[in-house]
Amino acid sequence: MKKILIIEDNPDVRENLSEILTLSGYEAETAENGRIGVDKAQKNAPDLILCDIMMPELDGYGVLHILSRHHQTADVPFIFLTAKAEKEDFRRGMSMGADDYIAKPFDELALLQTIESRLQKSDRLKHASEQGSGSLDRFIDEAKALDAIRHLSDNRELRQYKKKDLIFREGDHPRWLYFVEKGRVKIFKTSDDGRELIVKVAQAGDFLGFLALFKEDAYPESAAALEDCSIKMVPKQDFAALVFGNRDVNARFIKMLASHIAEREQQLIELAYNSVRKRVATSLVKLAEQSGPDIHMLREDLASIAGTAKETLIRTLTDFKNEGLLDIKDGVVHVLALEKLRGLPN
Fold first, then answer.
1. Residue pLDDT, tens place only, 281-290
2. What domains are defined for the chain?
3. What does residue 275 show for φ and ψ, rounded to 5 degrees?
4. pLDDT value for 278
5. CB 270 within 8 A of CB 279
6. Does residue 86 carry a pLDDT above 60?
7. Model pTM?
8. What's the DSSP call for residue 19?
């Protein structure tokens, strides 16, 4: 039976939570303030902690700060209970490593679903660490970073962009971190004579513009909608507060930066040494792996990804069609032989 520690100074809320959890098959332990909660957690670590923020003697932030620095409690899923919905509270809690928030008054079903989800994730991480050679700390830190990054886009301004709309321009100074909620976005560089080279196709779940925010410099590339998109806008000060206040999130974004640099280097190598046929084949493989075998994209955009002229791209696609590698219908490229395209000789 999973044990859940409830740290809550309001006796009615504390008793209500305890009853709900007990009826749902959990072992509920309670603490009426932060100091008692810390003591109970350190003596016998629970499987999950529900903790109010505003409490006398020691508030929820203090509880999290203390428990996150002790080995036996650092990896316990930690969920804040709060009646306050100000953005500062959410940002501060996530930057400290909280796993989630539940706003009071809470919905019982939502509460139980959140608890179950966090417990299941904790179990998966423990199992993964036992199966692999890495430490549990590394798995937990990675998970907390991902959760904090995902929460970074919560409750943000949502903007709609039509196909071909510019989202940001190379050379502009950043004010936002962009989160792709829906649709696809092309990241591209433009030559002096106006030709485009698409360096990445971002999709739902991707962040855009973080390189410029890290460097505190102008955008090195431009971004435009490949199709109708929904983009969440994260103010750069919120991004900075989370990234520079949470070492796990900082490490995660550094990994993103390293991946970004590696992708650009590989793309430069392919542009320099691969034939047109190989570049087009590689581009089709990447798009098919990302979004499936049906590729809905303008020919000029496909050409920009492959680093070739539109006319050359069309001839190459026709050759691939005649070779049975793909089919084209109503402008949609349908990949038929992914592995053959992948293994196409240079």
1. 999 998 988 7
2. 3-152 (3.40.50.2300), 157-257 (2.60.120.10), 274-342 (1.10.10.10)
3. -70, 170
4. 94
5. yes
6. no
7. 0.54
8. H
